[in-house]
């Protein structure tokens, strides 16, 4: 069960950290409608986090629920990919990060709906409608910014290039991922990567953005607990209340 628990933590941690990142932008969106939409995406991801971490805690068997797993683990214990912990930056940075994640997330959830683990398939089924909306929204914004003003195009292209090195870790399968594929729990990396590249290239073409080279070297480490310095700052803010007042409840 150790591999499956780790795999569940990876899904929960990805959604948790990205939700925390997006929540920082509440009230700071470029337009009221967009501000509300971004906050709703953060809430969707937080709801998905709860399902993944609850299941992980049950399989782990150490009596840790969603709150303990979210608020009482140190950075090296988290299993999120490096892309979700990258700074919000300007709005192009935020949306390119979101678009890369949403594209992978959509095709992963689609694959997980066919998981032989009924609980995982159920979580994926509950998530797929939200994730479909996330992908449609972020792709639309990438097109609008890429094919917009010269400044919006330049900022979006810069974000596309800067964040590309973090887009491959999601498809770099290690022993845990491969065990889940062998057990029929998770989809294989190759079809996910192919679907990701096809969708991203289509959106970038519409947005008049140059597609980065898919063969470049990709950053890795987050899935095994080796993170950037950014995660420590994220956790310091996110976990403060629970660590300062252990067991505090509303």
TrEMBL record:
SUPFAM superfamilies: Ferritin-like. Gene3D superfamilies: 1.20.1260.10. It comes from the Bacteria. Pfam families: PaaA_PaaC. GO terms for biological process: phenylacetate catabolic process. GO terms for cellular component: cytosol. PANTHER family: 1,2-PHENYLACETYL-COA EPOXIDASE, SUBUNIT C (PTHR30458:SF0), PHENYLACETIC ACID DEGRADATION PROTEIN PAA (PTHR30458). This is Phenylacetate-CoA oxygenase subunit PaaI. It comes from Massilia atriviolacea. The lineage of its organism: Bacteria, Pseudomonadati, Pseudomonadota, Betaproteobacteria, Burkholderiales. The gene is paaI.
């Amino acid at each position: 069960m150790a591999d499956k628990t780790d795999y569940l933590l990876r899904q929960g941690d990805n959604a948790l950290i990205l939700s925390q990142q997006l929540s920082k932008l509440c009230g700071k969106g470029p337009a009221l409608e967009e501000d509300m939409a971004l906050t709703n995406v953060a809430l969707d991801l937080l709801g998905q986090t709860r399902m993944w971490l609850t299941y992980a805690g049950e399989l782990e068997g150490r009596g840790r629920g969603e709150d303990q797993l979210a608020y009482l683990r140190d950075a090296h214990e988290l299993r999120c990919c490096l892309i979700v912990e990258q700074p919000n930056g300007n709005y192009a940075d935020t949306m390119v990060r979101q678009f890369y994640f949403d594209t992978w997330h959509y095709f992963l959830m689609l694959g997980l709906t066919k998981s032989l683990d009924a609980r995982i398939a159920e979580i994926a089924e509950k998530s797929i409608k939200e994730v479909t909306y996330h992908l449609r929204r972020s792709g639309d914004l990438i097109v609008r910014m890429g094919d917009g003003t010269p400044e919006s195009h330049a900022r979006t292209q810069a974000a596309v290039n800067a964040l590309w090195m973090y887009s491959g870790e999601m498809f770099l399968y290690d022993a845990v991922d491969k065990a889940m594929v062998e057990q029929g729990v998770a989809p294989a990396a190759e079809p996910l990567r192919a679907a990701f590249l096809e969708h991203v290239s289509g959106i970038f073409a519409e947005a008049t953005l140059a597609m980065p080279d898919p063969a470049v070297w990709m950053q890795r480490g987050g899935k095994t607990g080796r993170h950037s310095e950014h995660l420590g700052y994220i956790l310091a803010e996110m976990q403060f209340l629970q660590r300062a007042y252990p067991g505090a409840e509303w």
